[in-house]
Design goal:
heterodimer; A: 264 residues; alpha+beta; five-stranded antiparallel beta sheet; three-stranded mixed beta sheet; B: 162 residues; alpha/beta; seven-stranded mixed beta sheet; globular
Chain lengths: 264, 162
């Protein structure tokens, strides 16, 4: 590569000589430029050409500068892709190392944004590929699981007025879908916290606990909402609970669940 | 000592003071900052055996065993013990991101002052510590496991005398 740039510089210099020499042969122009008589226009032309060649060599063809330029452009390009996807408005004009570190930040921002919901399958795929590139296969697999939404149940949970005083803000709220025909762990689980009522929720195949055991394959299910006093997954005495009737997850009807009893 | 050094010392003091609790010894009480629910004291879990999984969002093997710990917590056997996770992440948001992404359902806490890390000797993670109902450390398991396999369930039954 240095040889290439050397030849480029040499050829550019020859071209410059060919253009400048006839122009500088005119003594009157030469006198205007330098302010006094000169006897060797060729020497002046060579001086100008040498300065141009040296500038060319120092600014473009030095291998470290070239490598840095290539790396910076690469990092900037990749960082901009993530910035676009993540909504990150970080300044991409800084040097390569800074851009490289901002890439991790951009990935974290994208991860954070998608975790809050609303990401498209393409967004999750971008995140998955990013994790693969960084050598984080478990993260990539988790990101891809979000693309497999399949069947989904949406609805809202409210609490009976008589029980509302027993639930504090920040208490753990579980919303689980259980298969009627296949007892065992839930086919989809959501864990959230008590805040303002009603609580909106969506259960889908990405919330499956076991491959192949999900809402899409479950048949009829029952959906339970439970406020857990100790934050533990299994129901315990004192927890507050409500449940839907049996439903078919493939029938897209908004579900309303009322928490209306205390587990004895 | 300038004010900055003093602040650093104050922030790291709890972690520096926490000595490792070996197998057979009782875990002292500790405050755990909640990641997906209320903050709690370790002593809130006394009275029932406890499975403590120590992890970090940057730790690949930790993430590999996450799903099996989740399944374990939903098994009927888990009525006999509690399962909690403790993140050693410095950056809370990274830990929260992973919990959201993995749909974690067990109670998770963060230990960014290294107190639990030192108490449990979590110099290598993932680390899973089996604690008796009286707070005594019964077993430490370093490295990733599938926690819902028959072998793992047998280990829990034997350790907790279930």
């Amino acid at each position: 590569m240095p040889l290439f740039w050397f030849l480029t510089g040499a050829l550019s210099s020859l071209a410059a000589v060919a253009v400048l020499y006839p122009w500088l042969r005119d003594r009157s122009r030469w006198q205007i430029l330098l302010g006094h008589r000169a006897t060797a226009p060729l020497a002046a032309a060579l001086l100008i050409v040498s300065i141009l060649a040296a500038y060319h060599w120092l600014s473009v063809s030095r291998p470290p500068a070239l490598a840095a330029a290539v790396q910076t452009d690469g990092f900037k390009s990749a960082a901009k892709t993530f910035a676009d996807a993540s909504g990150d408005s970080a300044d991409l004009s800084s040097a390569a190392p800074k851009v490289a570190s901002s890439m991790e930040g951009a990935i974290a921002n994208l991860e954070g944004r998608l975790s809050k919901g609303g990401g498209s399958p393409d967004d999750w795929e971008l995140l998955a590929k990013s994790f693969e590139f960084l050598g984080r296969p478990a993260d990539a697999a988790a990101a891809r699981a979000h693309q497999l939404v399949g069947t989904a149940i949406s609805g809202e949970v409210t609490i009976a007025p008589a029980l509302s005083a027993k639930a504090a803000v920040g208490d753990t709220l579980f919303i689980v879908a259980k298969s009627i025909n296949s007892p065992g762990p839930p086919v989809a689980v959501f864990r959230g916290t008590v805040g303002a009522w009603p609580v909106q929720f969506t259960l889908n195949d990405s919330q499956s606990m076991l491959a192949g055991r999900n809402l899409s394959s479950a048949g009829r299910v029952i959906v339970e909402a439970r406020i857990s006093l100790k934050g533990q997954p299994l129901p315990a005495s004192g927890d507050l609970q409500g449940a839907s009737g049996e439903i078919d997850p493939k029938v897209k009807l908004p579900l309303k669940i009322l928490i209306d009893r205390v587990i004895p | 000592m300038n004010s900055r050094s003093l602040l650093l010392l104050v922030l790291t003091l709890p972690g520096l003071c926490a000595a490792e609790v070996k197998i057979g010894q009782i875990l002292p009480d500790a405050f755990m900052q909640g990641l997906n629910g209320h903050s709690r004291k370790l002593s809130d879990y006394r009275g029932k055996p406890l499975v403590i999984n120590v992890w970090a969002s940057w730790c690949g093997p930790c993430k590999q065993e996450t799903a099996s710990l989740e399944r374990l917590a939903w098994l009927e056997l888990a009525r006999n013990f509690n399962v909690i996770g403790i993140s050693t992440d410095d950056d809370r948001q990274r830990a929260v991101n992973w919990l959201d992404q993995s749909h974690s359902t067990i109670s998770q806490f963060i230990d960014n002052q290294r107190e639990m890390e030192n108490l449990l000797d979590a110099s290598k993670i993932p680390l899973t510590v089996l604690v008796g109902g009286d707070g005594r450390v019964l077993q430490k398991v370093y490295g990733a496991r599938e926690w819902d396999t028959p072998q793992a369930l047998q280990l829990l039954r034997e350790t907790f005398a279930l």
